[in-house]
Design brief:
With 60 residues, the chain is mainly α. The protein is 48% helix and 0% strand.
């Protein structure tokens, strides 16, 4: 981030983190699960590995 971009946020950078009075904080494990990697293409990795093994067998 360059100096001019940082300057845009000088007025809020040192404010305390907002905490809701109505909603409890989400547990850390649940927050982490939101960002955990997922398999968008189920079985894709296995298919690639199978093709790789077949290629290695054919080409020694």
């Amino acid at each position: 981030m360059n100096e001019t971009e940082r300057g845009k946020y000088d007025d809020i950078i040192d404010l305390p983190h907002p905490v809701s009075k109505k909603h409890p904080q989400m547990p850390l494990a649940d927050r982490a699960a939101q960002f955990a990697p997922f398999a968008a293409l189920t079985g894709h990795r296995e298919a690639i590995q199978e093709t790789e093994h077949m290629f290695e067998e054919e080409n020694g």
